[in-house]
């Protein structure tokens, strides 16, 4: 059993709750243009974007019921202004770097708050346009996507990390 209380999910598929996507959307400046979730899973993020009238597309490497399946983020190019995603955590830095090379507005990723740690990332953060970190005041429970396990109180701290094109200086830290 992992710290999250769930066994490791196949291909790191964990489902974020709608409320945490809504909280980020409430805190962030409005999106302009098309938003892409390249790790869409069952579609929580693109669904919440569309519910607010934000044009969104969805894809995933695996067929999980939402968007284009078989789409590998690391080899596919999609014309989108922004990326909003809950990516595989082990490749988050690669997602940021590639996402920034493909977008014109921002890259918003739901990651463990501990993403702020690490010697390698310490040197990388000042070279990236990290603009905002929205720390979740509530613990987020993300059960494996291929299970019927109900979401219960989370054990891990999460935050939305936002890299914005053109941002210079230190990131803003806020709470949602």
From TrEMBL:
It comes from the Bacteria. This is Methyltransferase.
């Amino acid at each position: 059993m992992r710290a999250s209380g769930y066994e490791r999910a196949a291909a790191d598929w964990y489902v974020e709750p709608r409320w945490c996507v809504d909280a980020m959307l409430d805190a962030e400046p409005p999106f302009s243009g098309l938003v892409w979730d390249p790790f869409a899973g069952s579609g929580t993020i693109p669904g919440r974007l569309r519910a607010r009238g934000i044009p969104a597309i969805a894809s995933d490497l695996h067929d999980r019921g939402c968007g284009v399946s078989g789409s590998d983020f690391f080899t596919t190019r999609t014309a989108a202004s922004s990326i909003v995603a809950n990516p595989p955590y082990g490749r988050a830095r690669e997602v940021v770097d590639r996402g920034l090379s493909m977008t014109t507005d921002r890259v918003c990723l739901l990651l463990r708050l501990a993403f702020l740690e690490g010697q390698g990332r310490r040197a990388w953060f000042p070279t990236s346009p990290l603009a905002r970190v929205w720390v979740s005041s509530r613990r987020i429970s993300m059960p494996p996507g291929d299970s019927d396990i109900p979401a219960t109180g989370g054990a891990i701290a999460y935050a939305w990390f936002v890299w914005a094109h053109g941002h210079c200086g230190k990131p803003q830290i806020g709470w949602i």
